Amino acid sequence: MNQNFYDLVEANPVIAAVKDEKGLRECCELEDIKVVFILFGDVCSIGDIVDQIKQAGKIAMVHIDLVNGLSGKDIVVDFIKNNTRADGIISTKAAIIKRAKELGLYTIFRVFVIDSIALENIKNQFHVVQPDFIEILPGAMPRIISKICDIIHQPVIAGGLISDKESVIAALEAGAISVSTTNPDIWKM
């Protein structure tokens, strides 16, 4: 775990997740946003997107699974490392997370908790992958967030369906260290 990254996320519990150019411009103007999750782009534009975030003095985390034109193979991490100024990656794939850690990038393992099997898989995969953070989606499930925090004893980010102040507070009280959201109103809280 990179302590500086952990401290930054803990001190700034709302993470801007951007899905388009409008959201990118808006989050780069907000002083309180320190970490940005990039949920869009393609192989030709990802470097420019990352550069805009870095020029704004923020941490840029690329969700590799959502960048058009990149394969699901771990070589995409090498591409991001060698061709952008990204600080880290987000992925649902264990091999991608493992490769990013080898290259010294920050890592967030994104997991969709849709049933009890997914919950069990978190326990099994997490110990093998050991990312810096695990992001749980949907994030508007305080009881499940609490259970996951008890199981893995690792920092949890709650993402997805975080739509108001109450859902932010509920996720943080359940044990999440921060929340990620595409909602600009939450970014400004």
Q: Which properties best describe this structure?
A:
189 residues; alpha/beta; 8-stranded parallel beta barrel; globular
Number of helices: 9
| Global Rg | 15 Å
Catalogue the unreliable spans: none
Largest sheet: 8 strands, parallel, barrel
Strand percent estimate: 15-25%
Overall spatial form: globular
* Distance from first to last alpha carbon: 28 Å
Element order: H for helix, E for strand: HEHEHEHEHEHEHEHEH
Strand order of the largest sheet: 1-2-3-4-5-6-7-8
Break the fold down into its secondary structure elements and pairings.
Layout: H1 3-11, E1 14-18, H2 21-28, E2 35-38, H3 46-55, E3 59-63, H4 75-83, E4 88-91, H5 94-102, E5 106-112, H6 116-129, E6 133-137, H7 142-152, E7 156-159, H8 165-173, E8 178-181, H9 184-187
Give an account of the 3D structure.
By secondary structure, the protein is of the alpha/beta class. The chain is 44% helix and 20% strand. It is built from 9 helices and 8 strands. The chain has helices at 3-11, 21-28, 46-55, 75-83, 94-102, 116-129, 142-152, 165-173, 184-187, and strands spanning 14-18, 35-38, 59-63, 88-91, 106-112, 133-137, 156-159, 178-181. It has an 8-stranded parallel β-barrel, surrounded by 8 helices. Helix 3 links the parallel strand 2 (35-38) and strand 3 (59-63). The longest helix has 14 residues, at 116-129. The two termini are 28 Å apart. The mean pLDDT is 94.
